[in-house]
Amino acid sequence: MPERTDFWGIPHAWGDPAIYVYTLMALAAFVLLWRFYQRASPWWKIGRPPSTYRTGTGETLWDRPFLRLWKVIQYAIVQTKVLRQRYPGIMHLGLAWGFFAFFLGTALATIDSHFFKFLQGDIYLIYKFVLDTFTVFFLIGAGMAFYRRTIQRPERLTLEPGFTWSLALITLIALGGLVTESFRLAIERPAWAWWTPAGWLLAQAWIATGASEATLTNWHLSLWLFHLLIVAVTLVTLPVGSLLHILTAPLNVFFAKLDRPAGQLAPVPVTAEGKSIFIQTLRDLTWKQLLEAEACTECGRCQDACPAHAAGTACSPKQLMLDIRSALHHDGVTPLLGEQINPDALWTCTICGSCRQECPILIEHPDTIVDLRRSLVMDGRINAELQKSLDNLGRYGNSFGQSPRMRARWTQGIQPTIADIRRQPAETLWFVGDYASYNATLTDVTRKTAEVFQQAGLDFGILYDAEGNSGNDVRRVGEEGLFEMLVEKNIAMMERCEFETIVTTDPHSFNTLRNEYPDEWRSGHQVLHYASLLDDLLATGKLKLSRQLDYTVTYHDPCYLGRYNDIYNAPRRVIAATGCNLVEMPHHADRATCCGAGGGRIWMEEGHMVERPSESRIREAVAVNGVEALVVACPKDVTMYQDAVKTTGSEDKLKVLDLIELVYEAM
Amino acid sequence: MNIIVPIKMVPDLVEELSIDPGGAALDTAWMRLILNEFDDHAIEQAILLKERLGGQVTVIAPDAPDVDDALFTAAAKGADRLVKLTGETESLNSHAIAHAIVPIIKTEIPDLILTGVQAHDDLDGQVGPLLAESLSMPYVGYVSGVKIENKMATVIKEYPGGLLAEFMVELPAVLGIQASDEPPRYVAFTKVRQAMQTASIEELDIGELYLSGGVTVSRMFQPIVGERAEMIEGQAEEIAIRLVEIMQEHGVL
Amino acid sequence: MSENILVITEHLQGHVLDITYIMLAGARQLAEQTGSKVIAVLLGYKAQSLTKNFNADKIHSYDRPSLENFSPDAYLRVIEAEINEEQPRAVIFGHTTIGMDVASGLSARLNLPLVSQVQHFNGSNFVSQICGGKIMAEGALPAPTALVTMVPGGYKLEDGQGPTPFVLEKQAPSLEGMRVRLSHYIEPDVSDVDITKESVLVAVGRGLQSEGDLELVERLASGLNGEVSASRPLVDKGWLPTSRLVGKSGVAVKPKLYLALGISGAPEHVEALTGSDLIIAINTDPDAPIFNIAQYGVVMDMYEMIEALSNTLEGQAHVA
Hints:
The complex is a heterotrimer of chains A (667), B (253) and C (320). By secondary structure, chain A is mostly helical. Helix content of chain A is 53%, strand content 5%. The longest helix of chain A is centred in the first third of the chain and has 32 residues. Chain B has 253 residues and is an alpha/beta fold. In chain B, α2 packs across α5 and α3 packs across α4. The radius of gyration of chain B is 22 Å and the shape is globular. In chain B, 49% of the residues are buried. Chains in contact: A-B, A-C, B-C. At the B-C interface, α3, α4, β7, β8 and β9 of B face α3, β7, β8, β9 and β12 of C.
């Protein structure tokens, strides 16, 4: 009957091999833990705990351990996010699942050895087969990885020898195991040999050499020792090499935030005495933020997805993590900004959320970027254009520096007059937003929106001059104080009005109203983006479309509607309802690439760029087969893409249309 | 270095200005006030000098709506003392402001007084040179750079055509600032809010309004627009064609 | 006490500044009210030839080496003496970097009323332009002696010009112990284009969103065989050098075409382009003051217009 033998082929002449093995492994494990402690302790020695915020309790990272464990299983074991890209997905799963299998296999063998024997008969055969299969799977992954590092050499990876050495180490472990096994099979030649097909095939090579049993036994022992040694070396070097992510990545996933939605930034943290904390040195970052920097595997998916990086600016989410990491290894006290981290890299970020979306181990780059920006703002280290916009926002409630009294100028001539929700209650408050109100090129779209609402019999009103910027991008620029002031003003104004629902055409306003305005206020009102409203109006028949447009269009998912708030289907249903034929761009839904206006970028000097994000996106749109129009659902997208169409000379290839323009035409 | 910066609030030109029913003054009902842009530069120049040479910066302003904001913002940037002139401050002209500030300065004995070179609502001259004369101090205006060394100020004065001149001025002196060495810094809202808690504004009653020296206005009106431009309407392309035609008609093209 | 009008003339590095003629024109109008004389006051060194086309009845020339260049302290002393001697009805200064340094100081020193930003006279009333040109304030010129600072816009330069008046040399008071001393001039960089010689200027102002967009403007300018000029905000940002600045602190221009893009039309800017033959303005604000001096105007986003114009010109170039 096939059964597992303890230490097959290992001589007992110098005593029980178990003692040597366990001693060595125990030592290696001890060194591993010791070195890991040395690596990890700076996180909580230097970093601070996530403290209380001014408005409520801070984030605790230890609650609901089972839910957290479940996330570890999803992201660190099954690795669902790694699988978002095919080649590296399969490659890494080969390596990682291979190792989970080996680890499990060894654990089971230990149980079998010391507790109760169960690895016998069919169970044993299945055990061998599974391990053998995973070995093959692993080696395929390793081969793919070597190919990736030596031939493919994608830009997003850190192509340094350290990584290749780590890959070599683990490959040697797996190979060592396989070869040891093959020698044993060559000697033993059991009847069940085909249950380990790879090992058995390799054994044929040794059999073919005609070597004596003694020779094979020596080789077996040598390989076994070699395998043991490599495992020990891997264990003791794990905390200092690129394999550290085996420990830090699951930890990072475990401690990931549970409740705070993507579209909600954390408020400025405060000390126990109530003093605000702005990041000057590493000590001002939380240990979780330091862990993130350490856990980063340098895979570079974030960087690849970053529109600012693609545009050729200094921005790189990956580099930010590595800068924090290198600051941590330095001394932890030198000022971060300017010394370790380039402020330019922070200012060129559009806070589009692609990086956090792509990160397989749930790093939250935007949180740290905004934290750092807050510090720059406190120091007054912002460029002149942004300064002007913030001054304007503070004084006039809009970034254009135009009088509040001009906000509703777009309503002139609209019949019937749009209700002033300050004076008369209405069911819906239409929060128009700065761009839709003040920007000359958008007036037409805003008026069409009004007409569509009126046609649908929507009971709505606007705030006229009393509306102020919602604050979403002010917050993302790092001017938390101004954000709070804008929120206070808007809330004070809205409390005096009577309405149930808020609708806005601006995804940025939508995001902050829905996710960041004070809890008590939010619980009383439903916040909708107009795409969802239109979807509903069409579905319930309140809005009827008399024409079917036959355009071939493509749709750009706005960052703050799609990635940050998971609204992908409503606008698509609206497009379908107008009879247009929607063809998706390669980067769509949560992979949509930002137009470049967010994070306050539209208020800043552009700086040097190789190609604007909006222009790259237009090139992608134009490449869609037979496309006539790019449909957008955000006022800033309209202006950004109309400009980009001009600067790329695509006027006769593509029209930029707001979703409302389709609906208007189909009405 | 003891630096004093007299500032004032002026009508914000972003809003539409209208004349009050009396016909001889601005209608203040809808008027928004904003810190005089050149005074903002003066504050910045003062803070820069303080950062370079040490010392104290005092900002003085006549009471007006929103002046507290401007004063606290100056404190958040680094001003040490904030003084507000209270009393009959509604129709203070430059002569009155200068008259009110002179006694304060005489007790302060500053090394330098920096103020905006002009304000767009000045009808009876500028506070800077008026102050200088009352204090028997030298004055240079349209200054866009200040360096201090050994009781002497080296200032850059702007002339037309991009020409600049360097002047040596004996301290104490009054300088009319056109632009500070560095553009006025940004100060975070949070910092201004903090300043509101930590800084305090001293109030000084100016007593009787100094009326002589001002100018009596019999009527204010919006400028008669002689011939307004012929406005061309339509789509961008049509307009462009028309404009090119016009240019050709005028022999430009 | 006389009814004469004194004009404190301004000159710089051997040239008469335009404001001088404007002041002379205003002085002449005032003097004609009462049949009195216009006396132009010249402080300088061997600069009498500058006065050859002043529309004045007399020149009072103070000629000293130490008066060769403007200095506030020196001018205060000399003009104080002049006013005390002449006791005029009015003394007109430029509302400029020269005149403003001196006028208010004299107002305090001699306890004389001062009216600033005067654009023109209406009978014996002054009419001042305040609040960025949005408001006019009129009143009686204070008696017996009024100090006035003038801005351009109310008179043509030609009205301030006339046949060579008689020059009277006067003795300046002692100029010892000046507390302000000119060290040296800093000449502007002349390596760049001289926009005063260009016949087409495409001018940009605050409406320009980013430095990178200058490329679009330059393309348009070269399509018109012209150059790019700017108003103050862009020069302050460093996006264009001072040599391109049109305005009070920059240069005055007289091109055949002045195409103003995204420029609101503040007085300090406008005063320097009134010599233009054809002014076309593009601005999104229909109430922008620039439309009051332009012959043609378009209410539109400047970027749209730049694009449309560039395309039209390129199209025509191909046809031609």
